[in-house]
Specification:
The protein is of the alpha+beta class. It contains 13 helices and seven strands. The strands form two sheets. It has a five-stranded antiparallel sheet with strand order 1-2-3-7-4. Strands 5-6 form a two-stranded antiparallel sheet. It binds flavin-adenine dinucleotide. Belongs to the thymidylate synthase ThyX family.
Amino acid sequence: MPVTPDQQAEIDAERANPRQTLRATSPGMEQHLYTAIPVLDHGFVRVVDYMGDDAAICQAARVSYGKGTKSVQNDEGLIRYLMRHWHSTPFEMCEIKLHVKLPVFVARQWIRHRTANVNEYSARYSILDREFYIPAPEHLAAQSVVNNQGRGDTLSGEDAAKVLEILKADSSRAYDHYAELISEEEGSVGLARELARMNLPANIYTQWYWKVDLHNLLHFLRLRADAHAQYEIRVYADAICNVVADWVPFAFKAFEDYRMGAVSMSVQMMDSLRRMLKGEEVTQENSGMSAREWREFMGVIEG
Ligand SMILES: Cc1cc2nc3c(=O)[nH]c(=O)nc-3n(C[C@H](O)[C@H](O)[C@H](O)COP(=O)(O)OP(=O)(O)OC[C@H]3O[C@@H](n4cnc5c(N)ncnc54)[C@H](O)[C@@H]3O)c2cc1C
């Protein structure tokens, strides 16, 4: 269960208590505020706080005294121009603070993004819950034979059942030992929590607060909502994409158009494309590209 009934009651109480403010708010984001969006089997993402909206990006770009808004079209055009030309600092004026519950092996990938502020649940101080990520059967796949960093065919039948059995049994046994080691009952060793946790597997859930500005968040989403990212982090990135689309719709659309859906071409690629448009026959051999780069180029132009 992503949140317990008690936690949900806390969230509901926050949402039932609107405050008046002079600050700019984003109607789309207000819908998300505090609510836990379920991700994976026990995880979630929820917005704890945010600052700014599309207008704040324009306000900063124009270094304005007031709203900084000219007209809706002007604002959208300005945001698209800023995104297209990598004028990134106006996007840093918007911030988001998320509460994320995620498996430890996903957290290890996530924490590589250094341009955020993080505070993680302390397993030195608190006892971790008995919650482990067990993939849904359709996400159990064999090692890819073409990509060392990816998955191949989905496992099925006995193979899938065996994997699930091992994952569940190992998680359960490790947690039983953890509980035994930290037990304060008479006759127990009463091992320190900071030591007992070392035996827990990487599919156990942790939680953190993660605060980041919009520019760096979009960079994170560009890498982690991408098809090359591991499924288990991608689903978090996808959930955050939906939030960002409601929070700053103009910025998110520009991001989709100029980052997510865009490609970057080398000089050789641009040259080959121009020659092709003139009707010249261009091959890998006369393109100046390596075989791998040529394959990537073909992937781009053939779609
Ligand atoms: C599909 C995929 C596979 C990956 N595989 C591996 C792997 O096999 N092994 C591995 O170790 N990692 C791997 N990574 C992690 C990757 O190399 C980056 O560490 C991670 O994506 C964070 O990116 P970043 O540094 O750009 O982000 P951030 O840390 O958020 O930084 C954002 C930007 O800020 C700047 N910046 C931040 N800190 C510094 C600094 N100290 N010095 C200079 N500039 C800085 C850089 O311009 C950087 O791009 C993988 C990532 C992806 C998406």
